[in-house]
Amino acid sequence: MIPPSFEYHRPSTVDEAVGLLSSLGSEAKILAGGHSLLPMMKLRFAQPEHLVDINRIPELKGVRVIGDDIVIGAMTSENSVIADPVLNEKVPLLPEAAKLIADPQVRNRGTIGGDIAHGDPANDHPALALACDAVMTIAGPNGTRQVPASEFFLGTYWTALEESDILTQITVKAFPSGAGYSYKKLKRKTGDWATAACAVVIALSGGTVSHIRITLTNLGPTALRANEAESILMGQQVSDALIRQAAEKAMEICDPAEDLRGDAEYKTAMAGQMVQRAIHDALSKAS
Amino acid sequence: MAKQIVKMTLNGQQIEQLVDSRTLLVHFLREQMSLTGAHIGCETSHCGACTVDIDGESVKACTHLAVQCDGSDVKTVEGLAEAGALHAVQEAFYEEHGLQCGFCTPGMLMRSYRFLQENPNPTEDEIRLGLSGNLCRCTGYQNIVKAVQSAAIKLQQKESATA
Amino acid sequence: MNAPVKTPEERKADLQGMGDSRLRKEDARFIQGKGQYCDDIKLPGMLHMDIVRSPVAHGRIKRINKEEALAIPGVHAVLTADDLKPLNLHWMPTLAGDVAAVLADEKVHFQMQEVAIVIADDRYIAADAIEAVEVEYEELPVVIDPYAALEPDAPVLREDLQGKTEGAHGPRDHHNHIFTWEAGDRTAADAAFDHAPVTVSQHMYYPRVHPCPLETCGCVASFDPIKGELTTWMTSQAPHVVRTVVSMLSGVPESKVRIISPDIGGGFGNKVGIYPGYVCAIVASIVLGRPVKWSEDRVENISSTAFARDYHMDGHLAATEDGKILGLKVDVIADHGAFDACADPTKFPAGLFHICSGSYDIPAAHCSVKGVYTNKAPGGVAYRCSFRVTEAVYLIERMVDVLAQKLNMDKAEIRRKNFIRKEQFPYTSAFGFEYDSGDYHTALEKVLDAVDYKALRVEQEQKRADPNCPTLMGIGLVTFTEVVGAGPSKTCDILGVGMFDSCEIRIHPTGSAIARMGTITQGQGHQTTYAQIIASELGIPSEVIQVEEGDTSTAPYGLGTYGSRSTPVAGAAIAMAARKIHAKAKKIAAHLLEVSEADLDWEVDRFKVRGNDEQFKTMADIAFAAYQQPPEGLEPGLEAVHYYDPPNFTYPFGIYLCVVDIDKGTGESSIRRFYALDDCGTRINPMIIDGQIHGGLTEGFAVAMGQQMPFDEQGNLLGNTLMDYFLPTAVETPTWETDYTVTPSPHHPIGAKGVAESPHVGSIPTFTSAVVDAFAHLGVTHIDMPHTSYRIWKKLKEEGVQL
């Protein structure tokens, strides 16, 4: 219940934050929303000597439109993602899915960046980022760099972020016009992590699929993109049979951890269910 | 480790206190400020019994450091009533039997208070979702939902009365 | 000057007495954050205690190193079993005739068992200090399966009991055996089975679960070395019993021990027993001469405090071909964990499990329960169970469904056929319970009509015939009889103290009153409902009747609140005490009105001279008169105390019906409808009753649909946080429909039976009944709980059901 002692730092700029992380080294952890880190510290699973609180860095928050890019500050809270008019209009998958993360209070503090940077395969935004072809902007001691989502998630609790890096922005592009989208998340109860979840973005042109993304949450060491499942549908006229085939393909890449939510066979079967339901739901929203 | 000064507005009063970096807001409120309304029911941020209002948002005080409240406007259940008059949510919980042991109640009230500002005219489903960060073991939520519905009406009537 | 004269009905309404859904008197402090729970208490000089716990489930303690912890600034003491030995407090007696370690004495028996305590200036330092205590364990083989525990070569768990072939409840025939308890008539039952044309058997497991009230356990122990007085605020559902035990254990005279149960954030049976944390805090306070606070975490609460159930049951029914039950046999293996700390009345190591003949007229029955030690936390009786009635009702309701399925009979029809009929009450069951009153047939028809049962069965048929239907539909039906109100002192005692309860009432000169009882509310609304009883008995508005419980220095001795005993026992004491006052008041009224008592009638709030409406004295008038000059032969004042020894238990009953739709693809269950009819006899406050029902049904939903306490082979308790332990939110929780009938208890002064555990007892098998019913057309007769999506999906796969 009680976290161990630490030194608290509150930088006001990204440069200051990166500087602090560099000088403090591996004993420093970023305090973003705190709803992954503080519980771990209270249970004494994590005992960092320094916390670098990045909640008061204004440039890290909010959604901006720059040309074709929709730039989401990493410290934008889940509730801000849900409410943002630009995201609701142009990247509606994100607000819809964010509603399924945690609970209302946690969503005031939890951030899109924190959800991504942790590298936790159970978190939702990694699969959503893959589904939106997001590009991560990372600020580090040697400057800033961009990493596409497809190269960002490397393993369980392992991302492209190096020690002293800060994820500063997540950049996406507007969905194709008329695109449908869905996030189907099977969970034991409200607030739980996914037993299995699937994000789908789909667009049709002339009756066939012109754009398709199928990604999976908590079904492997990282979020997964079901490329082969997508290939089944791409360029095709959608049918129930084709959707089932795509689901089977997606199930083939699943390698879920067994836990109290269920064994691998069940979770993989649930992946198949969520894929089908997400595709159907996304199609119902497509025009 | 040296203590830090934290300044905040707490239930309308400006305060300045010394805290450790690791002091959780919920312990700061309960032990240092003697505001024992916010309760502790778990250590994994699930139960919501510690819910307070910070800068216009519902926050679980057990997962927030006191130092993070520097410069913030914090409201707890002790600050809900104004000039001795109960807030509409407090009246409604009483009238609709929305509490039994009372342990989840401060968190439920503080969440309901903020929820009705986010969504002044909610459906039942929206209320259940809006309060899904607050656990109760006694009531089965049914009368809590009725209380929030009743409070919504009271607040709307107050709105139109003062409009 | 001339106030309008109120009618008797208006005056009755003003009283807000029995039957009135008046709002609660206790709410004001709770809605303003001014409740006083144990962790809210702050005393000058108070220290904080935290507990070092064992990570292993079975092991010898080789070494404990306190040095690093003691070196932390602000740490006052680190105590282990060795420090408690000189006080003979390293072990303590349990409520079930066993002993339990206070701090592990050379051995640990379950994961998270208490090994050492640290006392520090504040809880933050104490939390650091417990990490600094070094304990070295030699791990021993772990037993988590009670069947494995009974194997001849199973590891010895209780070395302290080695050689003891007699336990508190009879002979022990194995080193991990605790007791074997039986009820009923085995010979008659065997004979019934020998001659029966139809028999069915079913094995079922009622999983270990935990009551998990929102407030965890804790205390503030404060020993005053100058006065030699011990005051302890404690999350206790039974403060007087605790006082007696604490006095016995500590040697402090009971007159100098004060236990105060302040506001309690939910009990549900989790706060009945005496935990090592309490004993240690008290010892620490006595040793240090300062107040010591202990507040456990949620993980500690789930992992070490009183769990519930863990009954492996084999049920058998014998019947005629047209479904008339001839006999019942039940054998149970009861997993009690490492110590038998079960909170049962002394003579009943399996509680009131022998209510398992249920609502049915079964001529021959026998049950046996075998208690077993395993490497798990101690306990067994908790969680709104009425002393194992949850298990008993689950057993019989499942067996009746199994029998109905075997005979291809409708579940409602087989129940009608076997119900104890209204005219048979009072009815003595084959297990010796004398059921006080009931009318099951009327209640059943009321429920079936309300939900249009026939239409539901038609719908189910249609859905089963439709291969494209995405769900399996199930209808669950449970018709339970509960037994509560423990209980008559000739059979019911806790550590020798009879299970009576008590009430004292004092009327003040100006007509308001104060009353204290031996029970203690944890959210049930006693401050309101008890006042309502007195209001109706004495004609004083409930609004001005102050009810207090929980302070052993002021409240008369009682056995506390659990097992739905408050209304049946304390409620009766209240009525009886009130009637003593009523009798004295009548004498005073007669004296004031200068008539004989025989000329007086009581009407709502006054004694009236018969035939003369103008001549009356209200209870308020009489109260003042009692303090002026009482009539000859009477003492001044107007008060009474009553200790009520109930002549019998009470038997609330209910009819619950549930409709579930199961997603064929995911195994998720959606509770479409839950209709709960309860009969608790006289209803004191319908609003409060409904609230209790909603809460009990919700806890039942949690148990049936998601709660579990899985252990791995090393005895690690998996899922002991709220991430995994299923407490439903408002989103998962169904909307409950409540209904009632009223069949008063003939032996209770106000005819009330108690109600708060019925919804938990009755709802759990209802959910199982519905889930099984969804699969019944495929020949499935039983599915163990919890009915999670994972477990149901496995069943769907097993049965070849596809979306």
Please give the order of strands in the largest beta sheet of chain C: 3-7-1-16-13-14-15
- Low-confidence runs of chain C (pLDDT<50, min 5 residues)? none
Query: For the report, how would you describe the main beta sheet of chain B?
Result: 5 strands, mixed
Helix/strand structural class of chain B: alpha+beta
Secondary-structure-derived class of chain C? alpha+beta
Shape of chain C: globular
Assembly type of the chains comes to heterotrimer
Gap between N and C termini of chain B: 53 Å
Beta fraction of the residues of chain B?
15-25%
Q: Give the tally of β-strands of chain C.
A: 36
Name of the CATH homologous superfamily of the largest domain in chain B: Beta-grasp domain
Low-confidence stretches of chain B: none
- Give the beta-strand count of chain B: 5
> What percent of residues of chain C are in strands?
15-25%
Instruction: Give the overall shape of chain B.
Output: globular
The DSSP helix count of chain C reads 20
Which CATH top level class of the largest domain in chain B fits?
Alpha Beta
How many distinct folded domains of chain B? 2
Question: Secondary structure elements and their pairing?
Answer:
The complex is a heterotrimer of chains A (287), B (163) and C (803).
Chain A: E1 7-9, H1 14-24, E2 28-31, H2 37-42, E3 50-53, E4 63-66, E5 69-73, H3 78-83, H4 85-90, H5 93-98, H6 104-109, H7 112-117, H8 125-131, E6 135-140, E7 143-148, E8 153-155, E9 158-159, E10 166-173, E11 180-186, E12 196-205, E13 208-217, E14 224-225, H9 227-233, H10 240-252, H11 264-285
Parallel strand pairs in A: 1-3, 2-3
Antiparallel strand pairs in A: 4-5, 5-10, 6-7, 6-10, 8-9, 11-12, 12-13, 13-14
Helix pairs in contact in A: 9-10, 10-11
Chain B: E1 4-10, E2 13-19, H1 25-32, E3 51-54, E4 57-60, E5 73-75, H2 88-95, H3 105-118, H4 124-130, H5 142-162
Parallel strand pairs in B: 1-5
Antiparallel strand pairs in B: 1-2, 3-4, 3-5
Helix pairs in contact in B: 2-5
Chain C: H1 8-15, H2 27-30, E1 47-53, E2 59-65, H3 67-70, E3 75-80, H4 81-84, E4 91-93, E5 99-101, E6 107-108, E7 114-120, H5 123-132, E8 134-139, H6 146-149, E9 166-167, E10 170-171, E11 177-184, H7 186-195, E12 198-206, E13 218-224, E14 229-234, H8 239-250, E15 257-260, H9 276-288, E16 292-295, H10 298-304, E17 307-308, E18 311-319, E19 325-335, E20 364-372, E21 379-380, H11 389-406, H12 411-418, E22 427-428, E23 434-435, H13 440-451, H14 453-465, E24 471-481, E25 493-494, E26 497-498, E27 501-507, E28 513-517, H15 526-538, E29 545-549, H16 566-593, E30 600-603, E31 606-609, E32 612-618, H17 619-628, E33 639-644, E34 653-663, E35 669-679, H18 686-705, E36 737-740, H19 758-775, H20 789-798
Parallel strand pairs in C: 1-16, 14-15, 17-21, 19-20, 28-29, 35-36
Antiparallel strand pairs in C: 1-7, 2-6, 2-8, 3-7, 4-5, 9-10, 11-20, 12-18, 13-14, 13-16, 18-19, 22-23, 24-34, 25-26, 27-28, 27-33, 30-31, 31-32, 34-35
Helix pairs in contact in C: 11-19, 13-14, 15-16, 16-17, 18-19
